[in-house]
């Protein structure tokens, strides 16, 4: 019963269950021993002849459906995610379920050491304890963390795809952390920017930049408005002058063309006469 505190182990041994709990991950998956634990405290509500000690998926679902009704009736703080993790033999789910049952049924707190990793119903804590060469690949992580019973109970392809994406993202993040922690093992080379010597900015330059920044931003409103109106008036005058110049140029061109055509007409008329 690895992972359980001493107080929880002593409590389980005092119940004198029909079957000894050796590995909670597998022994609690069908819900038979969980129902037997409840029967010690609620003998009128839990009848053991209604539960089946089978290992098939149908027996698991039938047992846990009765247990879920009992949990909802008594308003116990046990989530469906925790129950599903226990049914599908997820890492850490059964241990956390036993701890919740101990706290609810005995009304006692649990004193346990702080965990290095959060319980997310995956084999992350186990993988991080292994050496680098023995850790799972992405395909192996998907196979170990998604059970066949999950696909049988909930054959939703979108939900399965989301679970796979989360597992792959966690795997990639763990690989990045490994490369950062052990760059020599993975032959990580420095980039050109990392190789460059980054000199600190001198204090005089910093002070000049800050002063320019303050003068640009914190001008008085009157001065700022005067500068803005002056710039606008200059732009309007420039546009007017450009328009007048272009108009004069076009008129002079038209005048020259008309004059040239008039002279050519006079010459042609004189030759005819």
Set out the fold topology:
Elements: H1 6-15, H2 24-27, H3 32-41, H4 57-73, H5 80-87, H6 93-106, H7 124-129, H8 138-145, H9 148-153, H10 157-181, H11 192-195, H12 203-217, H13 221-272
Helix pairs in contact: 5-6, 8-10
Short description:
This protein has 273 residues and is mostly helical. It is 66% helix and 0% strand. The protein has helices spanning 6-15, 24-27, 32-41, 57-73, 80-87, 93-106, 124-129, 138-145, 148-153, 157-181, 192-195, 203-217, 221-272.
Properties at a glance:
0% strand; mainly alpha; 273 residues; 66% helix
Write up what this structure looks like.
By secondary structure, the protein is mainly alpha-helical. 66% of the residues lie in helices and 0% in strands. The protein has helices at residues 6-15, 24-27, 32-41, 57-73, 80-87, 93-106, 124-129, 138-145, 148-153, 157-181, 192-195, 203-217, 221-272. α5 crosses α6 (93-106) and α8 (138-145) crosses α10 (157-181).
Helical/strand content category: mainly alpha
The profile of the biggest β sheet is: none
Shape: elongated
Secondary-structure element order, as H and E?
Answer: HHHHHHHHHHHHH
User: What percent of the residues sit in helical stretches (DSSP H or I)?
Assistant: 55-70%
Arithmetic mean of pLDDT = 77
Beta content: under 5%
Distance between the termini: 131 Å
The number of helical segments is: 13
């Amino acid at each position: 019963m690895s992972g359980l505190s001493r107080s929880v182990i002593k409590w389980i041994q005092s119940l004198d269950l029909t079957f000894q709990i050796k590995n909670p991950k597998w022994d609690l998956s069908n819900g038979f021993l969980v129902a037997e634990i409840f029967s010690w405290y609620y003998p009128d509500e839990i009848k053991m002849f209604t539960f089946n000690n089978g290992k098939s998926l149908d027996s698991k679902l039938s047992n846990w459906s009765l247990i879920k009704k009992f949990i909802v009736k008594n308003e116990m703080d046990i989530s469906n995610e925790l129950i599903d993790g226990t049914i599908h033999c997820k890492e850490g789910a059964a241990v956390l379920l036993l701890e919740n049952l101990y706290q609810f049924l005995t009304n006692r707190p649990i004193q346990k050491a702080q965990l290095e990793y959060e319980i997310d119903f995956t084999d992350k804590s186990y993988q991080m304890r292994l050496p680098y060469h023995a850790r799972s690949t992405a395909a192996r992580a998907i196979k170990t963390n998604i059970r066949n019973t999950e696909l049988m109970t909930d054959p939703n392809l979108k939900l399965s795809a989301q679970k796979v994406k989360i597992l792959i993202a966690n795997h990639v993040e763990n690989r990045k952390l490994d490369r950062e922690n052990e760059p020599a093992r993975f032959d990580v080379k420095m980039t050109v920017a990392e190789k460059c010597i980054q000199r600190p900015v001198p204090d005089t330059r910093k002070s000049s930049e800050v002063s320019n920044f303050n003068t640009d931003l914190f001008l008085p409103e009157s001065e700022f408005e005067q500068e803005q109106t002056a710039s606008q008036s200059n732009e309007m005058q420039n546009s007017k002058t450009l328009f007048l110049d272009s108009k004069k140029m076009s008129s002079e061109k038209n005048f020259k063309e008309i004059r040239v055509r008039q002279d050519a007409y006079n010459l042609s008329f004189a030759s005819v006469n």
